[in-house]
Design goal:
The protein has about 280 residues and is of the alpha/beta class. Helices cover about 45% and strands about 20% of the residues. The longest helix is centred in the C-terminal third of the chain and has 21 residues. The N terminus is likely disordered. Bound molecules: ligand LMJFFPRB.
Length: about 280
């Protein structure tokens, strides 16, 4: 996804910006002129898996929204069953080194951009949010989820070690003993369970209601000075972002070694085969 492929349109009272790939718009951004709140919609069929281009589109869209002086960001999905299925597993399977490096750097940068955004951030989770899908929702300041879906980081279930910044995503919303158990079990939570442990803040019965609740949360900062708010947020979050801010290369090296190991590749093959066979039955 090249920056030059990102377009900005004036659409009535709203601005619409799209990050485009060859075949579709990977992300859509609409800014509400009345509230100044931007809705960033993930739009990569079929399940918003995060490949290199998708993560670049998300990062670029967030930077554009910040540059447009919006009042906040709501992250959501155009798919009414899946918020995001996490990393695109095809990027990890027998990867070409150069692309894998670019992919993992993009994951680091996308996460930092969202986690440390100057703006208030909220996720309207209108479908399953798995692995990095859950990480993105957890990086936001507020989460509203629709009933009947699932959310969680199940990496250990299929043989993946969880990288430290992903652990930190959970730690910024959940108490440590809960994080430890959830990550070690590879626990996926239902909407109700997620609300009980405060992984999500509210449940909404429709996407519209979820967006409205997210907008109310963002509106709750109306009295706060935006610069003071942003700097305070950065101070509060800097500790959990430290590894990626100070030593992204070390994290990259460790992750690449692990991803390219036979141990990881074998468990990925088995997992992908299981995922594909589901649709052949
Ligand atoms: C010490 C240092 C250690 C460093 C360690 C580094 C290692 C890092 C790796 C660990 C990090 C992991 C983070 C991740 O995000 S991994 C991604 C995990 N995600 C999943 O497991 C989600 C799997 N998907 C599902 O469960 C379901 O698809 C769904 C999201 C519940 C949706 O179900 P639905 O029935 O609607 O859709 P389908 O299952 O039929 O899917 C449609 C097609 O999409 C393909 N698919 C789904 N998810 C992915 C994905 N994440 N990547 C690639 N492809 C995906 C699926 O196979 C279907 O394809 P098909 O149509 O060809 O069959």
């Amino acid at each position: 996804m090249l920056r030059s492929q990102t377009k900005l349109f004036a659409l009535g009272k709203r601005q619409l910006c799209r990050s485009m790939s060859k075949s579709c718009d990977l992300t859509l951004v609409e800014v509400d002129d009345k509230t100044g709140i931007a809705t960033l919609t993930m739009n990569k069929p079929p399940v918003n898996s995060c490949n290199l281009e998708m993560m670049r589109a998300l990062k670029d869209s967030m930077k554009q929204i910040e540059g447009n002086k919006s009042r906040g960001i709501i992250l959501t999905s155009s798919n009414n069953k899946v918020f995001s299925s996490g990393l695109d597993l095809n990027e990890l399977r027998n990867p070409e080194q150069e692309r894998l490096v670019a992919f993992w750097k993009e994951l680091q940068e996308m996460w930092l951009t969202l986690y440390l955004s100057n703006l208030p951030t909220a996720a309207a989770i209108n479908g399953h949010a798995l692995a990095v899908g859950c990480v993105m929702a957890s990086a936001c300041e507020y989460r509203v989820m629709l009933p009947g879906f699932t959310i969680g980081i199940h990496a250990t279930k299929f043989g993946y070690v969880v990288p430290p910044f992903i652990v930190n995503s959970y730690l910024s919303v959940l108490p440590r003993p809960v994080v430890e158990r959830a990550l070690l079990q590879g626990k996926i939570f239902s909407t109700d369970e997620a609300q009980q442990i405060n992984l999500i803040d509210e449940v909404a019965n429709s996407k519209e209601e979820a967006l409205s609740k997210c907008a109310s949360f963002i509106g709750s900062f109306a009295e706060a000075n935006p610069v003071a708010r942003a700097l305070t947020k950065r101070q509060l979050r800097a500790e959990f972002a430290r590894t990626l801010l100070d030593e992204p290369e070390a994290e990259l090296k460790e992750s690449l070694e692990y991803i390219t190991s036979p141990l990881f590749q074998d468990s990925l093959d088995a997992y992908l085969a299981k995922l594909k066979s589901k649709n052949k039955k």
